[in-house]
């Protein structure tokens, strides 16, 4: 097991309120696997990534409970210095908008080389050679010319490739990708997804793939966790999840995506209502107010994640009935 | 009146790059190049394409938020390009727009009620009571409670704001609504709510939509006819079902293949199309798609392919898949493409 | 700031006559009768300082209002009517390249001195900065989808401007006005010091500093009183500007 997250709890502090962005989530990432994290905006999927890497804004957010074990060591207890050595070297991250995460005043090659130099004690020229090699790996045409490009001289797709090159330059064991293709066009998205899957197979890096798009999950991941209102509501292999969703939220999510197999011009099954505010404590299941399956127990007691099949867990009192529906 | 509700003929828009005070030739962005199509009453006409293909520019041209470089936009047979101020304002009642971003398209300083009744107040003076009744009525139409009329946009969720945007568009009882990426900024579950709302409104009020989107799944779900655009030109225009069942233009094919499908058991065989969308300032010669096209032949590099009508009522611009020879024997058809497009 | 305004407005009620001269009480140290002592002509420095505040405030506020209104008008026109934009902004650039004080001196020497002309002379050089600010605010708002939405809803130009564009220029305009106000107070003091501002018989801080600089070692209060008041006033106006900015900035309010 590469990464073991237990009861991770993160709060955001506003002027008068506390937002419970993560309400105690536990999951594992195994060596070399691709784990998808899906959910809609505000469900806590990005906060999970930032909490693991300890990149939360210091003034407004704090991880108040739980542990994150990387190779068995709790990285939440490490000093900042030790954390910096893990970040980038053994756990790397790519973001949604590559333009904001690349420094506009340095060439792409230099930024990759710098990442290499921080973690290995390679010489400048060796690091530049490595940068060129990485650009070649992510299939940027003419890497020997492109190393000298500034980020603004590249297209969105190419910048995302450069970001991936930078993230993979130190051969990390875990790559956290936060909506890496959301800002890209469909044809470019397909190229980048294909690239990430290929590279994962070649380097054996585990990938945690954060996205809102069920289609992207289906095409890239082996295992999936579904998040809603700061909690994990379902966890399963990708095949099981799409074949028999066991949480009414997962089911609702899948049905509300337009799908040609169900016929056109029909009303889509919608999830009524809106996501609950995380400022007030939630009693019972957070999905109960929107859930067609909700019964009294759902409104009183919060369901825990429990097994509903081999390697398939759901946090729902009526998961068996949901699966049958 | 049996003519089409909206008829677009050879619409073209070039944006100059920078001001040309000291330069002799100003490079232009060819945002929209010679686009023609028609929209029938009560129909959903979709425009798909990737960023920079000109689909949003078309929306703004139709609303005359920007002036076209060339071409005509006819609504019920009247050319709106020739209209002057007051006539233009009157005409705007027939055509309204729903914007992409539910955050920036609502004035943050006005209440929900003020926002949705503003278009009506531009044309007539409403008393306080009629104003309230109208606001309540519009809110109910888009599935919101009338109490919401006193809220500010910042107190509403993304989905609710987009409902306000739709209510504002409905307030003038238009016969055509242009929706520019109206559901793209929303979460899937909210997106489903809004799409259902649009479908309901169309059924109840017979409104036609020009639905602009990059999301093929959504387009396939609600569209009647679809135009696929690449670098400012329509490359394929077809009835929705036919297009998705059997795309003819290689770009349409690539676009459909690239869209992720929420089905993990589906095997992805074909490799994604290579390369990226070229700059609209210096588009490739001939067919703009030829540098990325697996089928490209010599002719594609030299000659812009014309839109050629196919047997099933679609038009395709491709030298390989839809050679122009088919119609060369019929000059009547070749002469006026817009007749074909109206079919 | 409020304290200063109240003090200045209420001046005639408690301070002595700022103009009466008493040749026998020249350059006196502070006393119960004259709190800050007297100046070279035997005038009450305290009374003159307080009355000086009225002049300074009046010049500052009127210049700020003048610059704000003028700048708003020109800025909105330049921002919304494309044809004027280039011409107006080049003129403003031209104005901006001339130092404020020189321009004011030039204007005054053309017309002769007086408080009214002084305010105009101070206002004109401040126009470019306000205009620029308003123009950029208008430019950034006019591209917003909600303005386009209003236009496609059939709104007439004046309504679009009044309802959708003007409100979002008000916040930065208030802040800019506060800065202009502070600047105007300083400029007035500078001009008066140079002798081209307010006529010398009218008490103004610039006049006072100017006329007392010769007697710095004998009667330090004659120069420090108006000097310190000037500094406090400018600081207060600037703080007011900061406060206004925080009040109007929607980002600060939303807190997210």
TrEMBL record, chain B:
Residues 6-256 form the ABC transporter domain. One of its GO terms (cellular component) is plasma membrane. GO terms for molecular function: ATP binding; ATP hydrolysis activity. The keyword Nucleotide-binding applies. It is a peripheral membrane protein. It is found in: Cell inner membrane. Pfam families: ABC_tran, oligo_HPY. The keyword Aminoacyl-tRNA synthetase does not apply. Keywords: ATP-binding, Nucleotide-binding, Transport. PROSITE patterns: ABC_TRANSPORTER_1, ABC_TRANSPORTER_2. SMART domains: AAA. PANTHER family: D,D-DIPEPTIDE TRANSPORT ATP-BINDING PROTEIN DDPF-RELATED (PTHR43776:SF7), TRANSPORT ATP-BINDING PROTEIN (PTHR43776). This is Dipeptide transporter ATP-binding component of ABC superfamily. The gene is dppF.
């Amino acid at each position: 097991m590469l990464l073991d997250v237990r009861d991770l709890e993160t709060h955001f502090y506003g002027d008068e309120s506390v937002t419970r962005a993560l309400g105690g989530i536990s999951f594992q990432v195994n060596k070399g696997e691709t784990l998808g994290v899906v959910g809609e905006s505000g469900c806590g999927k990005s906060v999970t990534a930032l909490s693991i890497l300890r990149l939360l804004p210091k003034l407004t957010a704090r991880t108040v409970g739980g542990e994150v074990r990387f190779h068995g060591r709790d990285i939440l207890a490490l000093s900042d210095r030790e954390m910096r050595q893990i970040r980038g070297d053994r756990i790397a991250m790519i973001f949604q908008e590559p333009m904001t995460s690349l420094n506009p005043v340095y060439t792409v090659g230099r930024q990759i080389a710098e990442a290499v130099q921080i973690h290995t004690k390679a010489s400048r020229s060796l690091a530049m050679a490595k940068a060129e090699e990485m650009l070649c790996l992510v299939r940027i045409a003419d890497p020997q010319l492109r190393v000298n490009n500034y980020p603004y001289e590249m297209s969105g797709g190419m910048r995302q490739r450069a970001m991936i090159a930078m993230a993979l330059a130190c051969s990390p064991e875990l790559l956290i990708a936060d909506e890496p293709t959301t800002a890209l066009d469909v044809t470019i998205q397909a190229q980048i997804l294909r690239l990430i899957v290929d590279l994962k197979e070649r380097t054996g890096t585990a990938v945690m793939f954060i996205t809102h798009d069920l289609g992207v999950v289906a095409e890239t991941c082996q295992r999936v966790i579904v998040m809603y209102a700061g909690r994990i509501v379902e966890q399963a292999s990708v095949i099981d999840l799409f074949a028999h969703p066991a949480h009414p939220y997962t089911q609702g999510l899948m049905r509300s995506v337009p799908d040609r197999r169900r016929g056109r011009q029909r009303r889509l099954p919608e999830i009524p209502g809106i996501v609950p505010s995380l400022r007030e404590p939630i009693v019972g299941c957070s999905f109960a107010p929107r859930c067609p399956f909700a019964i009294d127990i759902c409104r009183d007691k919060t369901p825990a994640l429990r097994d509903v099949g081999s390697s398939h867990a759901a946090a729902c009192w009526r998961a068996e009935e949901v699966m049958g529906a | 009146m049996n003519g089409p509700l909206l008829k677009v003929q050879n619409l073209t828009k070039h944006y100059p790059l920078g001001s040309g005070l000291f330069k002799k030739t100003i490079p232009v962005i060819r945002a929209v190049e010679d686009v023609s199509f028609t929209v029938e009453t009560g129909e959903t006409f979709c425009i798909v394409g990737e960023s920079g293909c000109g689909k949003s520019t078309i929306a703004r041209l139709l609303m005359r938020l920007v002036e076209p470089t060339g071409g005509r936009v006819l609504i019920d047979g009247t050319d709106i390009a020739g209209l002057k101020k007051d006539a233009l304002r009157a005409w705007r009642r027939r055509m309204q727009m729903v914007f992409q971003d539910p955050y920036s398209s609502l004035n943050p300083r006005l209440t929900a009620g003020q926002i949705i009744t503003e278009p009506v107040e531009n044309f007539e003076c409403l008393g306080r009571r009629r104003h309230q009744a109208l606001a309540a009525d519009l809110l109910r139409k888009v599935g919101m409670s009338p109490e919401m009329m006193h809220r500010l946009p910042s107190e509403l969720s993304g989905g609710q704001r987009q409902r306000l945007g739709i209510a504002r568009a409905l307030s003038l009882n238009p016969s055509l609504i242009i929706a520019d990426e109206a559901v793209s900024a929303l979460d899937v579950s909210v997106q489903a709510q809004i799409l259902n709302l649009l479908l309901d409104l169309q059924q109840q009020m017979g409104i036609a939509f020009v639905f602009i989107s990059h999301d093929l799944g959504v387009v396939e779900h609600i569209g009647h006819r679809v135009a696929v655009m690449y670098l400012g030109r329509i490359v394929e225009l077809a009835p929705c079902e036919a297009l998705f069942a059997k795309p003819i233009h290689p770009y349409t094919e690539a676009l459909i293949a690239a869209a992720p499908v929420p089905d993990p058991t589906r095997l992805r065989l074909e490799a994604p199309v290579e390369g990226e969308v070229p700059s609209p300032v210096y588009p490739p010669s001939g067919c703009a798609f030829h540098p990325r096209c697996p089928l490209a032949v010599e002719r594609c590099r030299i000659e812009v392919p014309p839109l050629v009508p196919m047997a099933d009522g679609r038009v395709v611009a491709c030298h390989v898949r839809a050679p122009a020879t088919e119609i060369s024997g019929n000059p009547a058809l070749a002469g006026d493409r817009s007749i074909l497009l109206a079919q | 700031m409020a304290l200063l305004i109240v003090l200045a407005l209420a001046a005639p009620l408690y301070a002595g006559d700022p103009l009466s001269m008493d040749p026998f009480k020249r350059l006196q140290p502070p006393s119960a009768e004259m709190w800050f002592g007297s100046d070279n002509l035997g005038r009450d420095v305290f009374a003159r300082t307080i009355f000086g505040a009225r002049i300074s405030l009046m010049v500052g506020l009127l210049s700020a209002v003048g610059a704000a209104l003028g700048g708003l008008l020109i800025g909105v026109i330049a921002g919304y009517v494309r044809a004027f934009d280039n011409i107006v902004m080049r003129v403003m650039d031209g104005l901006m390249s001339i130092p404020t004080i020189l321009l004011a001196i030039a204007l005054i020497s053309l017309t002769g001195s007086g408080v009214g002309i002084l305010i105009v002379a101070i206002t004109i050089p401040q126009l470019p900065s306000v205009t620029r600010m308003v123009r950029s605010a208008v430019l950034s708002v006019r591209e917003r989808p909600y303005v386009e939405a209003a236009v496609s809803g059939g709104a007439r130009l004046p309504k679009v401007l009044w309802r959708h564009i003007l409100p979002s220029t008000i916040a930065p305009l208030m802040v800019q006005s506060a800065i202009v106000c502070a600047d105007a107070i300083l400029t007035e003091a500078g001009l008066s010091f140079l002798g081209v501002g307010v006529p010398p018989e009218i008490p103004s801080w610039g006049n006072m500093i100017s006329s007392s600089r010769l007697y710095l070692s004998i009667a330090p209060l004659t120069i420090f009183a108006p000097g310190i008041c000037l500094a406090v006033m400018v600081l207060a106006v600037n703080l007011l500007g900061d406060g206004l900015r925080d009040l109007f900035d929607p980002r600060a309010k939303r807190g997210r």
